[in-house]
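Lecture notes, unit on protein representations.

Consider one protein chain, 521 amino acids long.
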Amino acid sequence: MALSLMLLLLSSCVNDLNTEPKVEQTLESIIANDPNAVAGLLSKIYGTFALSGPDGPASQDIVGPDAGETAFLRGIINLQDFTADAMKNRWGDDGLDQLTTASNWSPSNKFFRYLYDRVYFTVPNCNNLIIALNSTNVSGKEQYIAELRFLRSLAYFYMIDCFGKGVIVTEEDLGSLVPKQQSTRKEMFEYVESELLSVESNLPLTNTYGRANKSVARMLLAKLYLNAKVYTGQERYDDAVVYIKKVIDEGNFSLAPNFVSVFSGDNNTSPEIIFPLIADPLVSKSYGNSTYLINGSISADTMTPSIYGINGNGWQGHRATKAWYGLFGNTPQELESSSDDRAHLFWSNYSDSNPDKRHSYEMNDYKKWTDGYPSTKFRSTNFNGPQTNTDFSGTDFPLFRLADAYLMYAECAVRGASNASLTEALGYVNDIRRRSHAAEISAGQMTLDFILDERGRELNFEGHRRTDLIRFEKFAGGSYLWPWKGGVKEGTSISPNYNLFPIPTTALQANPNLTQNPGYN
């Protein structure tokens, strides 16, 4: 990491895909002189998914008025969770209202630009290092290159999912100043698919914690196939099952005995996490990693911040809506009496003797802190052992975990995948529910509606919800309403063009070959 920070201080510009490191030596000579430098350089690329920049929480790789806002993970949460049903943010600053109400989306919104720019910061950095490695004989370079190609594919996955098109920039384009032609969603899908299939054999079955292995690539490939009908118009559930089963059967993962442990400060020991975005309160401080989820969900006005391992008063920003906690109970009393451990990871405080500290079940005003229940799913406290409260979170973010793989398998089975067993799928679902002390379900209860609800109970606030709602045809339109959908308290129908985000204005200005998504000016 230290080498990474010293040697790879890269500039960021949306129209400068020919990014070169600002150092005295070339990457090739650095690696040739010190083969151990590869690990530091590689860590920089992994860090682009969790950190805002290379030199502490105030540094930034891409341009923005607030460094913390520009982090990849923060962008995933903003665009995947706040735009959907379960989570709302009350700050409303500079376009955040557009996300949390799924209304008035604009190509000039900086939050769309941040994720778009993150992709095109990460991708050329991967390309640079791939070229440098190809020019050397450093030991293990095939695996390093495979990891870089995975990270490049992961960045492109969010381009496919969120924007539906873009440009495919590879190491072959380094040195070219000619703007690339736009690739369709299907073309980007096929590129990422081919990359993941190609690198699988060069990735190890196990790897250093936080780095890609076979299961990590297989999980991303399975997610690509699970959403293939949305991305390409063609169902690929059978293909999704092939790679989900490889993750389940060969990855040597298991459900953590306790749900809360997966989201605690010592979750680096969890047997369930397949691929984490690493956080550390001392050496990888960031306002854009899990710090954003934890501190943003806490306020000393109504809560006790120290219970969750943080210093200070919290940021008073995020609350869940009844679209999430309502999956456990239709009233505060039902929520409190639920046997499901997951039902108790909200700060309801509805019976507090001080009315100013009570949070209401209904979100009558999404900008009012006490409307809706803050999620306490993520916390900075350790599940085991002592804890020192910190300003920044040390809780790793589980981008991929086994419970998700179980629910993906179950969904494919219910959707009719020929190579999936409904009996096995039911077993996976009940494994998840037993872990949280929820009642087991019968085969007849395992419908698509149930799967979507169970994904909400298990996976909300983990960057999946918008994608899930689109796949289940519940996001756009009016067949499913949630609080503040379309800017209306009870929810209202939104246009189908909201299934994709607008291409940022800055990207359109930088490359004349790009076109705007339908429905946006």
